[in-house]
Amino acid sequence: MRECCRLKGNMEERACEMALYIIEEKGTVRSAAQKFGLSKSTVHKDLSERLPTFNRPLYEQVKVVLEVNKAQRHIRGGMATRKKYKGE
């Protein structure tokens, strides 16, 4: 059974696992969504709205990583566009 199927029921456990993944891997919301088989909006909602209600310290850690990702996303987007048009 895929990992995402196991996590779909318990939102608290799912949010904690996604937060730990993002912290350990310095991942993005998009990478977490792909790994856990969920939509980006579900990942974002779990991390930004649900996680702070039951695990504030973990939320504070994941928030730092997500803020760094947000500050860098324009750079990653530009690199992806460059790669697309260079044919890499």
Overall radius of gyration = 14 Å
Count of alpha/pi helices: 5
**Share of residues in strands:** under 5%
Helix/strand class = mainly alpha
Structural features, described:
By secondary structure, this protein is mainly alpha-helical. The chain has one domain (3-86). Helices cover 84% and strands 0% of the residues. It is built from five helices and no strands. It has helices at 3-7, 11-25, 29-36, 40-54, 56-86. Helix 2 packs across helix 4 (40-54), helix 3 (29-36) packs across helix 4 and helix 4 (40-54) runs antiparallel to helix 5 (56-86). It is elongated. Mean pLDDT is 88; it is low at 1-5.
Chain-wise SSE layout:
Layout: H1 3-7, H2 11-25, H3 29-36, H4 40-54, H5 56-86
